[in-house]
Write a structure and sequence with these properties.
Number of strands: 11
Number of helices: 10
Radius of gyration: 22 Å
Structural class: alpha+beta
Strand order of the largest sheet: 5-9-4-8-6-7
CATH class of the largest domain: Alpha Beta
CATH superfamily of the largest domain: Dipeptide-binding Protein, Domain 3
Number of domains: 2
Oligomer: single chain
CATH architecture of the largest domain: Roll
């Protein structure tokens, strides 16, 4: 396959590896540091760590390939690197399903999540509790405050919606893909809502492909979600909730929100644009609540000192042609 980039494809063996080699026709081939690169499709954190420990891999990029049970030890090591990251973990409501068609119900559930408890007890890698959708450090933007932890207000809202003390509230399902961390977070939320609101949630863990299909069809009640910014701008997070965005996947629509996002995209005054985006994000966070932010990711990868050319950045982008390894 002819390419113009720094590397060209040598082979792709399913469930084994993708192999790239230096492209001699690349315009800057003289400064491409590494001749051959293999990508391994590892899904198990324990396997990734074992391959790294036995020097069969040099770099582990994926934040999900860090064994959470060893985080307290790994975080102290010099070859384990953390940094602010343009990504958020949240869950969606299907606003077309009762009782989640009532924004008071959605607000009540949002207000009863102790996010500090989740990041300290479950994730434990330095994640930041999120009250809004745009991560800290997003370029040219300061997010408005969202909802805090307020169980008393949550109980009042649930009563106003017709479910005092949780009475009459139907059991519902929370969908998530099969990874231990998602199950642990789900259990925490299940307990919080039971203790504070008197409502009960069933957990629905599923295989990745089935989970994605369910999300695409909006065939769920509540669903675990996350979003990694495609570019460093608030728009990559806020346009998720526009009526015509295929990634909305909640059934929620708001004409004022759509108008603000559309006008903001045409605004060349950065100060005015920021205010429009802040107003729009406040609508999602405090009024519509089609989704609830839980925490901002931290970037987490590991590699030894002999690997050079990697520099932490909020997008976690690392050009391969700048990376090289010293001989041992």
């Amino acid at each position: 396959m002819p390419v113009s980039g720094a590397y060209e494809l040598v082979g792709w063996r399913l469930h084994d590896r993708i192999r790239l080699k230096k492209n001699p026709r690349y315009w800057d081939a003289a400064n491409t540091k590494t001749e051959l690169v293999d990508f391994l499709p590892i899904t198990s954190p324990a396997t990734a760590l074992n391959l790294y420990a036995t020097k069969r891999v040099d770099i582990v990029w994926d934040k999900d390939l860090v064994p959470t049970e060893l985080l307290d030890i790994l975080l102290k090591r010099g070859d384990f690197h953390t940094f602010p990251y343009l990504g958020i973990y949240f869950f969606r409501f299907n606003v077309n399903r009762k009782p989640f068609d009532d924004p008071r119900v959605r607000l009540a559930l949002a207000l009863c999540i102790d996010k500090e408890r989740i990041v300290k007890k479950v994730t434990n890698a330095g994640e930041i509790p999120a009250t809004n959708f745009t991560p800290p450090g997003t370029a040219r933007y300061h997010a408005p405050p969202g909802l805090g932890y307020d169980p008393a207000r949550a109980r009042k809202l649930l009563a106003e919606a017709g479910y005092p003390g949780g009475k009459g509230f139907p059991r519902f399902q929370y969908s998530f893909n099969a990874a231990d961390i998602h199950a642990k977070i789900a259990v925490e939320m299940q307990q919080m809502w039971h203790d504070e609101l008197g409502i009960d949630m069933d957990l629905k863990q599923m295989e990745w492909g089935v989970y994605l299909a369910e999300q695409s069809k909006v065939d769920f009640e509540l669903s675990r979600s996350s979003w990694i910014g495609d570019y460093n701008d608030p728009d990559t997070f806020l346009n998720l909730w526009m009526s015509n965005n295929g990634n909305n996947r909640t059934g929620w629509k708001n004409e004022n929100y759509d108008r603000l996002l559309t006008e903001a995209d045409l605004q060349t005054d950065l100060g005015k644009r920021e205010k429009m985006l802040q107003e729009a994000e406040s609508i999602v966070l405090r009024e519509g609540v089609p989704a609830v932010p839980l925490f901002f990711y931290v970037g987490f990868n590991y590699y030894p000192d002999r690997v050079k050319g990697i520099y932490a950045n909020i997008l976690d982008n690392h050009p391969l042609n700048a990376i090289w390894k010293e001989r041992e």
